[in-house]
Structures are given as C-alpha cells and as structure tokens.
Amino acid sequence: HSPTTLFIAQDAMQKFHENCKAFGKATLIVTGRGSAMKTGALQQCSDSLRSNNISFHIFSEITPNPLLQTVQQCAKIYMKSGIEFVIAIGGGSVIDAAKAICFELKGLNCLEPQTESPLPLIAIPTAAGTGSEINQYSILTVTSKQTKVGIPNKCYPTHTYFNPDFIRTIPRNQMQSMFFDVICHAVESSLTVKTSDIQLEYSIMALNELQTAFSLLNEQNEITYQKLENFALAAIYAGIAIGYSGTSIPHGISYPITYFKNISHGFACVMFLCDYLKICDKKRVNMLLNELGIIDIQEMERLVAKYIQKPQMSEEEKHQYTKIVLESGKLKQHPDEVSQEVI
Fold it and tell me: What share of the chain has pLDDT > 90, as a percent?
C-alpha cells in the first residue's frame, strides 16, 4: 500500500496550485539542472507558491545518481531556514535525494534507522522510471563504499503531481533507459521471496501499460500524450510493486556498473536481466514476458541488444563488482541460493 495521494493528468500543476497552501508556509524546492526548467514545472511551482504567499528556497545541485554529500550539503545550508515541507521537481534521482533531505533537515542521519518522521515531501516528477514518486525508497551514491545504497528509512511523498507531458523533454536515449528500468521493476519484483498476489497484480498492470507504449523506444516514432501517460502509469504501477517486494539481483549488479562504468541505471539493470531470468522459475518468467508482449527470453535478449551492450570488464573488475553485489543484500531477495560464481 502506498499512502501517497496521486494526481496524474495534464492539469496536475493546477491541482498543485489549488492544494499547496495547505502544506505549510515555507518550503525548499529540490531539483536538478535540467528538466525542472525545460518543462516549465519549476516556473509553475514557483508561481503557485508566490500567489499563495508561501516562502521558498531553491536547491538545484542534484545530479543523476545523487551523492550523499550533496544531500548533507543541502541540509547544512537550509537547516535553520524554517522549512516546513520539501518539494522535489525532477526525476528519480531528485526525488530520492529529496527524501533523504527530508530526514537531514530535521537533524536525522538518513543512513541510520530513525523512529522520527521526516519532513513532508511533495513530488512533481518530470520523468518516469524509478517509481520514487509513489514508493518509500531512496537510493544514494556513497563514494566511501564505491556504490549506491538504499537509506534504511521509509519516506513516501505525501502528494505527487504528475503531468506525463513533462516526460516529452527528456532525450530519447534517457527515456529508453527509464523504460527498461520499469521493465526490471515489474519483472524483478515478481520473482523475489516477498512476491505476493497484490504485488503481481501491479506488475502485470505495469507490463501491460508498457506494451502499449513500446513505440517510445524507437527514435523515429512520434511521441504522443497517450503513450507518455501509459509510460507514466507503468512506472507508477511498477513502483508500487517494488514497494511490496523490492528488486533483486539485476539491481544489485547495476549499482557498481553505474558507479564504475558510468552507465545509466535502467540500462545497467536490464543488461543483466535476461541472464537472471535464466535462473528463475521458467513458468513465471514466460508469463511475465508474455504480459509485456515478448515471447521468450531469447526475444527479450534481442530487444535489449538493440539498445545496450555489456561493458568490457577485466577479471579483477568482475571480482570487485561481485563483492559489492554480495554485500548489497540483493541475493537474499532470490528464492534459491545463488553462488558467487553465478554472479
């Protein structure tokens, strides 16, 4: 169950305008350096805050695969600014960072388990993929560990205002990576030790929505609002699914691949998905792929190969990355024992 109140429509920002006065009198807008301005979301948000006499600061230093030190830097700057709630405008990286900032602004270490609630978070997504706009997870890059780490605290946005048209400004290769991330969420969450009937229902809905939005992968195809809405819904459904049962080994492998090889998250996940599916329950795997409109693993491999290839890795790198995967805890998500050699 996600407690987030979701508005998904072309007039989502109008809903934000109507509701924002109830959130508090002072806010911090957390964003990156691109999509918030390109989409007009930052301007619309700022205008609504001004017209409702809500004071605000803007922190726009969030990068893809957000750094723990950036989160801590933000909290240090605005700790004494009387912030009552936080607004995240951007993709999954921005929303993940904002969740951690919601803890840090209250003087709570986001990497340590907390019993106190974080500041309220409002999400205004400008991308689809991670599902962070609807679930509890926050993933940060921790340079001292040379990998990405999930914070051990839940932070659901209280409200999410999602205009799928905002996705239109994203470069197509980035959209492709996000598309594959949603596939991985829907599929991996259906193969973990925590898989349940309700989780599986959301995963199937996500895969069905993706099937109708497949044309977004092809750079030659027109981007329509309906396809963007299908994509956004798929990301939300898959985000709810991982909220129930989490992700599995492909995500664990993706973290060092993204950190060391600078490969975007969705591509880093999907390049190992098919190998993972070969050690999973064949009947369940075929059912999931069929819901996506894919016949079998071989067809999925051909699809992935059109967009991404595995990077070259030395034996030393393979051992280094495997150690990180083993320490990530993702192997516990798989129903059967998986050896170091298999990874």
Answer: 97
Give the closest residue to 24 by CA, choosing from 163, 160, 158.
Answer: 158
Specify the CATH number of the domain 171-333. Answer: 1.20.1090.10
> Which run of H or of E encompasses 14?
helix 12-19
Q: What is the full DSSP assignment across 145-160?
A: TTEEEE-SS----SEE
pLDDT value at position 1?
Answer: 74
Rounded Cα distance, 187 and 181, in Å: 10
Tell me, what DSSP letter sits at residue 40? S
Reported CATH class of domain 5-166: alpha beta
What lies within 8 Å, CB to CB, of 233 at 6+ separation is 8, 205, 206, 209
Tokens describing residue 252? 């664990």
C-beta of residue 185 within 8 angstroms of C-beta of residue 250: no
Torsion of CA 204, 206, 207, 211, to 10 degrees: 140
* Residue ranges of the chain assigned to CATH 3.40.50.1970: 5-166
Q: Which helix (H) or strand (E) holds 142?
A: strand 139-142
Q: How many CA atoms lie within 13 A of 79 on its CB side?
A: 12
65: left (phi over 0), alpha (psi -120 to 50) or beta: left
What's residue 273's pLDDT?
98
Q: Where are the alpha helices (DSSP H) in 134-224?
A: 172-188, 197-212
- Long-range CB pairs of 215-218, under 8 A, 24+ apart, other chains included: 216/175, 216/176, 216/179, 217/175, 217/176, 217/179, 217/307
Half-sphere exposure of 209 (CA within 13 A, CB side): 25
